[in-house]
User: What shape does this take?
Amino acid sequence: MLLVALFVSVGFVATGVLPVQQYLDRGNQVAEAQETLDALVEQNGALEDSAGALLTDSEIERVAREQYGFVQPGEVGYVVVTPDADGEVVNTQTPEAVTEPDTRGFFQRFIDFITGRDTTSDG
Assistant: This one.
């Protein structure tokens, strides 16, 4: 009889403790998930702010100048060419052509086109 009572009490303890442990584990998982969600919401807000800043004229100009080497009309663009470890010259950017605005009138450009004076020789 004592053995049966012992098995029954062990059964009650096992069925009572295991669900409590699972409940406590779920609480920890919820807390960890909430921390992760808070971090992601904060990161999302920072990304939205930086995306909004990219739409300003000054930021568009900065990116165009830094990443693509663009220059304003009348400015002269320079490209720094550095040799790599083997001594070969590495060109990191393609320079933009600097052209002066054409101040000739329509008819003068048309006449130059017809006569062939608008072509240039490269050397």
Remarks:
- Residues 38 and 44 are 10 Å apart (CA to CA).
- The first helix runs from residue 2 to 53.
